[in-house]
Amino acid sequence: MTMPPDVKAYNKQLIEQFRANGGPPEGRPVLLLTTLGARTGKQHTTPMMFVDQPDGTTVVIASNAGAPSHPDWFRNLVAHPQVTVEKGAERYRALAVVPEGADRDRIWAAIVADHPFFAEHQQKATRRTIPVVVLERAD
């Protein structure tokens, strides 16, 4: 998918559609992640692709389409790991956990096997390793 010219406007429209329809358009694997701003403490909701793992956990990928820096939502959840997840019609609190080392590598390999475009994102993001985030249900 190519990035739209006005990402904020696109995301706002996607969030509105998601909430109006009880889930993402066209059955895409998209969830809404609400974080608290790292500096402001204000809530920020971001639509993003997710990958369900065989163990039942949900993972999101901080690829930022291969940009040289992490996406804002990732910096927010590192500062405030308690997040809210909207997945389909379900809404729940979660703890965002950033696995490292072998755990991260195992999750990353499974994601890339099913979604090879993430390998392209990693190639473009030459100065950083793209993090994966496990959303552990809190309620």
Descriptive account of the structure:
The protein is an alpha+beta fold. The chain has one domain (about 5-135): Roll (Pnp Oxidase, Chain A), CATH 2.30.110. About 30% of the residues lie in helices and about 30% in strands. It is built from four helices and six strands. Strands 1-2-3-6-5-4 form a six-stranded antiparallel barrel. A hairpin with a 6-residue loop joins strand 1 and strand 2. The model has no long low-confidence stretch (mean pLDDT about 95).
List keywords for this structure.
139 residues; single chain; 4 helices; six-stranded antiparallel barrel; alpha+beta; Pnp Oxidase, Chain A; globular
Short description:
The chain is α+β, with helices and mostly antiparallel strands.
What topology emerges from the helices and strands here?
Elements: H1 7-21, E1 30-36, E2 43-52, E3 58-61, H2 72-79, E4 82-87, E5 90-97, H3 101-114, H4 117-124, E6 132-137
Antiparallel strand pairs: 1-2, 1-4, 2-3, 3-6, 4-5, 5-6
